[in-house]
DUF1289 domain-containing protein (Ferirhizobium litorale), 73 residues
Amino acid sequence: MESPCILVCSIDMKTGYCFGCGRTRDEIGGWMTYTDAERREIMAVLPARLATVERRPRRETRRQRMARERDTA
C-alpha cells in the first residue's frame, strides 16, 4: 500500500496538516480503510497542502541527540 508518510508525525495546529506528509488526523487514521483511488486523490493534493504549512520541524537524528546529550553531560 502506498503511503506519503515520512515518519515526521506532527500536526500543524494552524492548518491541521501533518508537517511530514500533509494529511489530516482523520486521513492518517483512516488511511488503511481508503480505496486505492481515495488514497491517490488525497496524495494528489498533498504538495499544495504542504506549501501552506509555515514551519516544518527538523527531525532530530539519533546521532544528533547523542551528541547533544554528550555535550550537556
